[in-house]
Each structure stands twice: as structure tokens, then as C-alpha cells.
Design goal:
The protein is an alpha/beta fold and 106 residues long. 36% of the residues lie in helices and 33% in strands. A 4-stranded mixed β-sheet has the order 1-2-3-4. Strand 1 and strand 2 form a beta hairpin. Helix 1 runs parallel beside helix 2. The longest helix is centred in the middle third of the chain and has 16 residues.
């Protein structure tokens, strides 16, 4: 559906917290980029990962898989993954996937 140019990641690191703002389409063709970035941040020891998905206009199963993988990896090291500022489409997908717990109440 998309290609790697359909995804832009902006990362901020502040102590134990890392924030990633995701822009574009998070799908099979682009999910590996986010997976790699989150893995780097987890491996660097960030105890909290904040993902801002407000600018994600499409999310499929591959994108959900990245979120599930990051959540599991963070839990294994006692960390936390929080998804903020999600669009209606992303919220719907996360709800159907049973991942309401990831969404902050912001």
C-alpha cells in the first residue's frame, strides 16, 4: 500500500523517557522503521516510551504488531509504553486489537 517514504519518525530523548512522533502510514511496508527505532530506544535503557500517533493516517496489523512487540519488550525490562494523541482511526484499530491499555487519556 505504501512505501518507506510514507513514514517519518521524530525522536526526542530526555533521561529515562524517549518520545517518538510518527507521521504517515504505519503498515507492512513501513512498520520495520518504527520497530527498529523502538528497539534502539529500548536497548538504550529508556524506561518510558511515548508514542504520538496523531499524524498516523493508516494503521494495519503490521503496525499493531510493532506496538505489541514494543509493549512486550518494555514490560520485560520493567518499562512502559504509552500511546498519546491518537486519531480516531488509530484509536479504533487499537480498541479492536484489545490495546486500549496503551492509550493515555490525554
Amino acid at each position: 500500500m505504501g512505501n518507506a517514504s510514507d513514514l517519518l519518525l521524530e525522536t526526542r530523548e530526555d533521561g529515562a523517557t524517549a518520545s517518538v512522533t510518527v507521521h504517515g502510514s504505519l503498515e507492512e511496508a513501513t512498520a520495520h522503521e518504527l520497530r527498529q527505532r523502538l528497539r534502539q530506544l529500548i536497548d538504550a535503557g529508556h524506561g518510558r516510551l511515548d508514542l504520538d500517533l496523531a499524524d498516523v493516517w493508516f494503521l494495519d496489523g503490521a503496525g499493531v504488531g510493532v506496538l505489541v512487540g514494543a509493549l512486550k519488550a518494555q514490560r520485560e525490562v520493567g518499562g512502559e509504553l504509552v500511546v498519546t494523541a491518537t486519531s480516531t482511526q488509530v484509536r479504533s484499530v487499537l480498541k479492536v486489537a484489545g490495546l486500549n491499555e496503551l492509550m493515555s487519556n490525554q
